[in-house]
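BUG: 3D viewer hangs when loading the predicted structure for this chain

Environment: internal workstation, default settings.
Expected: structure renders.
Actual: progress bar stalls at 90%.

Input used:
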Amino acid sequence: MGFGHEKLDVYRAAIESVGWAYRFCEGLKGHRNAKDQLLRASQAIPLNMAEGNGKATDGDRRRYFEIARGSALECGAVQDVLHVCGALSADENANCKALLDRIVAMLTKPGRRGYAIHEEPVQYTVGVDPDPDPDTDPDADGNHERMEREPLAPGGV
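C-alpha cells produced before the viewer hung:
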C-alpha cells in the first residue's frame, strides 16, 4: 500500500541523498560539526516532505516543501565546506550536488503553488463612479467634478 509521499519521485531522491550522507559520514574522520549538520539537513528533506504531504491546506503543504527545499540547499553548502576542507573530493561533491539540484528543482514547483495571483476579468466603464459615495472624483485632467453614478449591469459589471 504505502503513504502518498512515498510515491513522489522527489521523496525517493531525498531518501537516496540521505543514504549517501550516512555512508559518507560513516567513513568521515573529524569535521564533527559539518558531519552532524549534513546528517541533520539530509534527514530534514524527506521528513518535511512527508509531514507536508499530510497537511490539509495548500499553505501548510507549501511551507513544509519550502523547508525541505531549504534543507537540500543547506546540504549543498555543507558539502562545499567539506570539499574546501579536503574531506570531500570535487567529483563526489559534483555527483552529490547533481542529485541535490534535482531535488531542489522538484521542490521549487510545489513550493510556488499558491503564490500565483488570480484575478477575475473586470469590465471598466468610462464615466462611471465606482464608489457609491457622493464625493467628487478627479477626471483625466485632474479636475474635480461630480460624476453621476450609472446603475450597474446585471452581474455587477
